[in-house]
Amino acid sequence: MANSLLLLAHAAAELAGEHGAAHAEPTAFGLNPAWYVAAAMTVLILFAIFGAKAHKIIGSGLDSSIAEIRKQLDEAKSLRAEAEALRKEYSDKIASAEKDAEAMLAHAKSEADAIVAKAEADTADVIARREKMANDKIAAAERAAVDELRAKAADAATRAARGLIADNHTAVADKALVDQAIGQI
After folding, report:
1. pLDDT digits over 49-84, tens only?
2. Cα separation, 58 vs 50, whole angstroms
């Protein structure tokens, strides 16, 4: 390949040499036009040889980039699906927790109402028992006072009767009473 380029450059130089005797050859950067033609032909030939492979290399590079981007997109989709599933799961858990909290609150309120009702009933029972106990104590105190009063009255009556009997009865009267009691038997 390098030989063919040299041949082309050599041929271009010979052609330029045959036609260039009559006038001065222009140069740029110290090179004559034949070198530019040779360089252009070399680039064209290199492009023809490697250009077919270059688009395959570029295409395969783009394909791999596309595949990588597609892989990342698929991964992002799966991550999004997982995130959506987790969000749904946690929103369901939150809803369940809120329902549980409401149920617990309702249960606590019903228990509190039951405790208050029981306390009111117990208080009413305690008040009724204490009232009954107080009434029983009052009745017992009244009975004791009545019994004490009766005992004092009986004691006073006994003393009075003893005094009357002692004053009004003599041995003769007692003998008559004893004889009468024996007669009745």
Report:
1. 776 677 777 788 888 999 999 999 999 999 999 999
2. 12
